Amino acid sequence: MGFGRYVTARVLWAGVVSLIITTITFLLVSAAPNPSVQEAATQAALQGGDPAEAAERARELRGLDQPLYVRYMDFIESVYTFDWGWSRSRSQPVTEALGQGLYYTAQYSVPWTVLTVLIGPLVGVYSAANMYSWKDHAATGFAFFGYAIPNFFFGIILLLIFGVWLEVIPVVYNTDVAVFSVQNAVQLSIPVFVLVTGSIGAVMRVSRNESAEFQNAEFMKTAKAKGVSPLRAYAYHVMRPTLVPLSTTLVGQLLALFLGSSLLVEVVFGIPGIGRVTYNALIAQDTNLLLGSTLAFTFIAVIGNLLEDLVFTVLDPRISYDDR
Amino acid sequence: MATQKPERFDQVDWTEISRSRWFDLSINSIGMLAAALPLLIVALYDWQVLDERTPTLEPVGPAWDVGTVDYLFIFTLLLFAFYIVLPLFQNPRRTKYYWREFKRNRPAVVSLGWLAVVFVGGIFGPFFISAPEQSILTGYQPPVFLSVEQSYVSTCVGEVVNNQCQGTWQHPLGTTAGGKDVFSGIVHGMTISMQIGFITTTIVATIGITFGTVSAYAGGWADELMMRFVDIVLSFPTLLMFLLILYIYGAGLGMFIVVFAAFAWGGTARYVRSKSLSISEEEFIKANRISGASTYRVVRRHVVPNAASSIITQLTLLIPGFLLAEAQLAFLGLGDSTIPSWGQLISAGRSDLSFAPWIVLAPGIVLFLTILAFNFLGDALLDALNPEAEAENA
Questions:
Q1: I want to staple A105 with a disulfide (CB 3.0 to 4.6 A). Which of A68, A138, A274, B70 is the partner?
Q2: How many angstroms separate the CA atoms of A153 and B360, rounded?
Q3: Largest CA distance in chain B
Q4: For residue B62, what pLDDT is reported?
Q5: Contact list, B361 vs chain A (CB under 8 Å)
Q6: Which of A153, A264, A279, A282 to mutate to test the interface with B (most CBs of B within 10 A)?
Q7: How far from A290 is each of A29, A37, A85, A164, B165, CA to CA, in Å?
């Protein structure tokens, strides 16, 4: 199988996965009684009307009287045409609400991802190069600390120290400042720090253990014997093969963290991002918005996994496409 | 037992080893059955005969209403005792070897000690320490040796020195805003954490091992299909799906455990599959097959034991994720509010953090240490149980 065919197959597969997850979402939602139908019935009963009739009308209005497969086709069609309905709690289309959330989420998740991807492997390879020195132990200790401390717990502690006691950052995220301003950088520094601490540990550990193998490999000895500078030797001969196994776990881990942490960190720091939108939709019983954000996160995850696999094949040309 | 010293060929108890009929059970399985059957009977009795409001053990004495999660927990504890702890006693030579390997990693030994504390505290603690109770008057009591300004506390249990309410041994870790004792909250939270850890692990191991071996032995398109299914399971956004289920149907601790376990076995299945495939090529499996062993027997006696070390390691590293997810949900106010978990305590103290930090810090640090301990333990088990991996990490 050539590269082109592999990419096509992989993209098709991503489409299938997203379709399956969307289907499960649909089944979950359609199996439950619709809260707005019950609401209509209660409303009618309170006003002296016939609750059964009101419920029937509400069902008709929302197209719930149609057979399951018709509703399913409608649902799928609207999902893939980004017609995600109207958010009741925010009085705006769901896609617009999510877009606004994404704007704030991107402001901290882009620096977070870049820092993790840059610093993690560097520190990992560095501590492998200085294995069992105090630097290595310090890095390992930090990795375990970051990995084990719950993000939200760490977040509220830092918020207490820097927000309440030292008053360096605002307790609730200030949306009025410009995106590229010092103020914004300062108030986002703590959330980014919390997230980087949480995600960098795993990256450091994997890159440390993987690169330890290449330290004493024959090609490293050859490179050193030929007088290649240590920096170049590590950059070309240790870092690159290390990135291959790392990339298989990196994206998945970052995404898993992103799903959970964005919710928690945004709630702790009061950032009105996409996690916060999801949380508020849940609290406000806004079904459309909750569905929309679930789908948004799902698509982000599917696309992330797709990119991971594609990057993997580019990084390591040795792997044949037939194996996967 | 003769199998304890298999150094000499003629001393091997062949009837012990060549047990092949399925009804000829090992001592472990007999013990498991003997313990699990009464449990099943009690559970059925509780489900069918007793009405919902009567606590299960009322006819006997204690007013402990055993719930579904409790039954599952006891069942998994029995599994743990008969298939993990008992074999360690049956084979002391191997146990000693593991312990020697394990002991070299000092942080892991400390971690094991901490987890033992959590384990024992979680199982026996609730019988000695009563559940934290609401009492508004004694809210915000500081931990022992610490003090808080009198104005925050309505009734100070300890002494008041210089307008500062002192902590007492009555509430060693202080109390929450509602006057709930933080220490007993932490002890009861250990039970919840152990329940989450044990039950999810059992579910994940059962599904993962079954799926992995079936996939490996089915081969062909069935294998392909099953592995693609694993891909989907692995890329499933579990937390979000749980939020959706929570929103539509409402969910307690049992639902949490089932949903998170149902989407966490993908990695285990993948691993077991690749291990089964590689082991089935080994000479001893061929010898086994020629001697007439069935596929089930090969899987049960050779594939699973050979993969066990890595499965256990992987499961150890999965547990902290579940504990964290529960704490996160509880913190968001979306967890099961009827249970006294650590996350509930953390979220209860969040708004009072500036003057009563112990409410958040105590359970938060316990949670942190537990997650850390599981990670250290998983790392050390990787080295101790799997000598091949040692070469990489040493």
A1: A274
A2: 8
A3: 85
A4: 56
A5: 157
A6: A153
A7: 11, 17, 11, 32, 46
End-to-end CA, chain B: 36
Q: How far is A294 from chain B (nearest CA, A)?
A: 6
| pLDDT tens per residue across span A279-299 | 888 888 788 888 888 888 888
> ipTM value of the model?
0.79
Backbone angles phi, psi at A68, to 5 degrees: -60, -45
pLDDT at B379: 77
**Extents of the domains making up chain A:** 3-89, 94-315
- d(C-alpha B193, C-alpha B341), whole Å: 7
Instruction: Give the tens place of pLDDT for each residue, A204-232.
Output: 888 887 887 787 778 888 888 888 888 88
The confidence score (pLDDT) of residue B1 equals 44
Residue B47 has pLDDT above 70, yes or no: yes
Residues of B in contact with A32 (CB under 8 A): 248-249
Of the candidates A37, A18, A93, A110, the one whose C-alpha atom is nearest the C-alpha of residue A277 is: A93
Burial class (CB in 10 A: 0-12, 13-18, 19+), B50: middle
pTM (two decimals): 0.82
Which residues in chain B touch residue A301, judged by CB atoms under 8 angstroms apart? 235, 237
The CA distance from B331 to the nearest CA of chain A, in Å, is: 8
**B391 contacts chain A (CB < 8 A):** no
Give how far Cα A300 sits from Cα of A26, A254, A293, B170, Å.
18, 11, 10, 51
Q: How far apart are CA B371 and CA B321, in angstroms?
A: 8
Mean pLDDT value of segment B317-340: 84
- Sign of the torsion formed by the C-alpha atoms of B16, B20, B24 and B26: positive
- A161 interface with B at CB cutoff 8 Å: no
**Residue B147: beta bridge partners?**
B166
Flag if B350 and A147 touch (Cβ within 8 Å). no
User: What amino acid is encoded at A115 in this protein?
Assistant: L
What are the angstrom distances between the C-alpha of A244 and each of A317, B129, B330?
10, 51, 37
Average pLDDT in the B50-78 region? 70
pLDDT at A304 exceeding the cut of 60: yes
Q: Extract the tokens encoding B120.
A: 């024992």
Instruction: Test B235 with A305 for CB contact under 8 angstroms.
Output: yes
Across the interface, do A294 and B237 touch by the CB < 8 Å criterion? yes
Domain A94-315 annotated CATH 1.10.3720.10? yes
Q: What angle do CA A241, A245, A247 make, to 5 degrees?
A: 100
Nearest Cα residue to B335 out of B238, B254, B234: B254
Residue B219: left (phi > 0), alpha (psi -120 to 50), or beta?
A: left
Domain ranges of chain B: 93-132+182-393, 141-180
Q: Is A24 on the interface with B (CB under 8 A)?
A: yes
CA dihedral over A130, A133, A134, A136, signed as positive or negative: positive
Residues of B in Cβ contact (< 8 Å) with A260: 239, 324-325, 328
Range in A8-12, B35-39, B187-191 the model is least confident about: B35-39
**Closest by Cβ to A160, choosing from B240, B353, B369:** B353
Give the up-direction half-sphere exposure of residue B41: CA atoms within 13 A in the CB hemisphere.
6
- Predicted local confidence at residue A318, as pLDDT: 66
Contact criterion met (CB below 8 Å) for A301 and A259: yes
What was the pLDDT predicted at B370?
92
Percent share of chain B, pLDDT over 70: 82
The C-alpha angle with vertex B254 and arms to B251 and B259, in degrees rounded to 5, equals 75
| DSSP for residue B175 | B
3-state secondary structure of A299: helix
Return the CATH number of the domain spanning residue range B93-132+182-393.
1.10.3720.10
List A93's β-bridge partners, or say none: A86
Per-residue pLDDT at B114: 92
Give the best-scoring range by mean pLDDT among A59-68, A78-87, B117-126: B117-126
